[in-house]
Specification:
The protein is mainly α. Helix 1 packs antiparallel against helix 2, helix 2 runs antiparallel to helix 5 and helix 5 runs antiparallel to helix 6. The protein starts with 9 loop residues before the first strand and ends with a strand.
């Protein structure tokens, strides 16, 4: 939805589930990346929790609140092109929910978490025990997740300034404000 189409300067956007999902997933990723040693039981369980969170978020993407639903923000080619044209012209489209580029990033992050969950689980199976290619894939997916999450955080700050919205605050309060 275009922000300029509404005179409102604030509205509820992110429901409680989306916010708890987001910050719990952030916690799992940070703990597994910087606190818990690889191979520990806690590392595995945090990975399983992260994967379960993503699967639950996918379900919520079909049955959740308006802005949590994929139909509200799924990055179709036409949505992406319209958004990119607006950004290049200096008049970016403004959305109450995810913009198309944010939606792409969200889908990439969720795919990476699921990749980590599956490759981590596979390493516990006898059939794949000690397979170097699988360990490498798991490590590369983890590195790519951290890089993507950093880009996501930076983009939230930059886009918030460009669009004059409080994006980070909205992920805490659920209310997206324009200023």
């Amino acid at each position: 939805m275009n922000l300029s189409a509404s005179p409102a300067t604030a509205r509820p956007v992110w429901d409680r589930f989306v916010r708890v999902f987001h910050w719990t997933l952030v916690s799992c990723v940070l703990l597994n990346s910087f606190v818990v040693d690889d191979g520990e039981n806690l590392h595995q369980w945090l990975g399983y929790l992260a994967s379960a969170l993503v699967v639950t978020r996918i379900v919520w993407g079909f049955i959740g609140s308006k802005h949590a639903r994929f139909a509200d923000f799924f990055p179709t080619p036409s949505r992406l092109m319209r958004h990119l044209r607006g950004m290049l012209s200096g008049q970016p489209e403004k959305h109450w929910g995810h913009n198309p580029l944010g939606a792409v990033m969200m889908l990439v992050l969720m795919a990476l978490v699921l990749t980590l969950g599956v490759t981590g689980w596979m390493q516990s199976l006898d059939a794949f025990w000690g397979e170097e290619w699988l360990q490498d894939l798991h490590e590369q997916a983890g590195d790519l997740l951290l890089l993507s999450a950093g880009l996501h955080g930076a983009a939230a700050i930059v886009m918030g300034r460009l669009e004059r919205t409080r994006l980070v605050k909205a992920m805490v309060t659920g209310i997206k404000e324009t200023y």
